[in-house]
Amino acid sequence: MQKGNISVQTENIFPIIKKFLYSDQEIFLRELVSNATDATSKLVTLARKGEAKGDYSDRTIDIMIDKEAGTLTIRDRGIGMTEEEVKKYLNQVALSSAQDFVDKYQDDASIIGHFGLGFYSAFMVADKVEVVTKSYQDGSTGVRWICAGDPSYEIGEAERDMQGTDVILHISEDSKQYLEEDEIEGLLLKYCRFLPYPIRFGTKTETEYKEFEGEVAEGEEKPEPEKIETEVDNVINNTDPLWKKSPADLTDEDYKAFYRELYPMGEPPMFWIHLNIDYPFHLTGILYFPKVSGKLELQRNKIQLYSNQVYVTDNVSDIVPEFLTLLHGVIDSPDIPLNVSRSYLQADTNVKKITGYITKKVAEKLSSLFKEDRQAYEEKWPDLGVFVKYGMVSEEKFYDRASKFALLENTEGKFFTIEEYCERIKEQQTDKYERLVGIYTADATRQHTLVEAARDRGYDVLKLEHAIDAPTIQTLEQKEDKLTFVRVDSATPDQLVQKDEEKENLLDETQQETITKLFTDAVGTGGTVELKPLDVQDAPVQIVRNEFMRRMKEMQMMQGMDANMFPDSYQVVVNANNPIVKERLLDVEDEATRAENATYLYQLAQLSQQLLTGADLKAFIDRSMKMM
Ligand code: ADP
Ligand code: MG
């Protein structure tokens, strides 16, 4: 054996590697198996070009545990290395790139851990790494390289028949879990599930039961079926994952089956997009639209990112726009730079293009579903809507496309595009400022009375009940000229769409003053009182919440501010023209009864909007009993 020193500037980077990568140690296996895959691919390419002659049909990569020796071995049948190559690639290339990497990202351990360092990540879990390799080239001999986790190494000859490489890890005391079958199988399933060559992890027993086929004499019991156990290779991976195939060769059932393979627990997806692009970057993948059914606390991190079929991460938030992280599936791109920091990733032009491409594909798919079968699309809307609205709110480019196929649903369960809806309400719901006023409820059940009151006026009421609807409304108001929204409880029905008509007030000034005073006392700090001449048949007292003030409060609550910082601003609108008001408050002599009646009417209005609770509700009931 020869001895030598690996040339490094720092005396010893191994302690650094160990320290920084501790949290994500397990990626060593991904790194070594992907090196084995690379080596195999290189040999396959050479063989195809006729530059390597021999039978290379067995491309299996073996993962082997030897508990007694305390080793974990990764064996490939790939290109192998000559002695010169070992010196060059393992001593210089691998180590220097590892060195650069650690130097660069010392301050951000999470990044290093996330992306790995190639060959040298082996030293995260091993005290000593042994490589036994033989080049595919004619006349090559076996080479053994040993490095015990410090800058010195040994190199010498080794016995070896087959071309390819064994990387033998002498697992260190504090990483013993990597000698456990379950642990390794788990990691292989996570990182290597779709690698292009078979990954074999020992054997497994397959059990079959064979029915007795011979003759059974009368009165005799048929013998139990025979149990036949066979040892078969335990191949971990699916070497030919669906996203690599041509969409033309695939059926719906293939896509659904692949979804089950990815998410065994998941509900079947609604539909999917098969991505395939070669220029200006390489990307393949399948994105599934899950059923979200109104939930927004979405299961994110479902899209898995692969690089040449090697699993990288399921945190794709830097690569796809936020709203698309609601989708499931896989993206595979060798062009997404992995050995870089997050901030770099966001600035990377390739990543930007990929983001743009995926957004466009998703929009195109939705658009075609909408055009091809509107009814089916409407049926899916409860699941799709959250997703589309989320996209419209968060991505300008997506808005421009989605505004053509986003739907609004009204309280009758009818669906409209934005354009159709504007057309529908134009006549009735244009206000004195020439704005189109969309009226909506955030809770059709609770606001039923108000919804009906608005509809009685000939207005259409939209159902915007989901958490995503508040920001969607804001976005629509910004984007769509002249379109504005008010909630059914933001004004009395006649004022939802402000027109120029003033009603005549049937009360004289003194009467108005008396009533205002009585209600101001009854309402106290609960809101401001406004006496208005409304329709005779409109309710005597109504409570409204100014749209703008309410939205401000909601926004502040969303930002986590104290709800009490911004008090609820209720307006108590008293209908001067309702005969009950006159009868109960003016035609009554007794001061105390008048005050009592004002409180009663106020509470009645509160009750109809479910604003009355606790002690107030009890007082109201007592009062009602007395009046009967
Ligand atoms: P990278 O894979 O990014 O090139 P690594 O540190 O993982 O960096 O590996 C360094 C080099 O060592 C590889 O480029 C390759 O030339 C060589 N190498 C590593 N593992 C193997 C292997 N199993 N068979 C052949 N060559 C290998
Ligand atoms: Mg590598």
UniProtKB/TrEMBL annotation:
<comment type="similarity">
    <text>Belongs to the heat shock protein 90 family.</text>
</comment>
<dbReference type="InterPro" id="IPR036890">
    <property type="entry name" value="HATPase_C_sf"/>
</dbReference>
<dbReference type="InterPro" id="IPR037196">
    <property type="entry name" value="HSP90_C"/>
</dbReference>
<keyword id="KW-0143">Chaperone</keyword>
<dbReference type="InterPro" id="IPR001404">
    <property type="entry name" value="Hsp90_fam"/>
</dbReference>
<dbReference type="InterPro" id="IPR020575">
    <property type="entry name" value="Hsp90_N"/>
</dbReference>
<dbReference type="Pfam" id="PF00183">
    <property type="entry name" value="HSP90"/>
</dbReference>
<protein>
    <submittedName>
        <fullName>Chaperone protein HtpG</fullName>
    </submittedName>
</protein>
<keyword id="KW-0067">ATP-binding</keyword>
<dbReference type="Pfam" id="PF13589">
    <property type="entry name" value="HATPase_c_3"/>
</dbReference>
<dbReference type="InterPro" id="IPR020568">
    <property type="entry name" value="Ribosomal_Su5_D2-typ_SF"/>
</dbReference>
<keyword id="KW-0547">Nucleotide-binding</keyword>
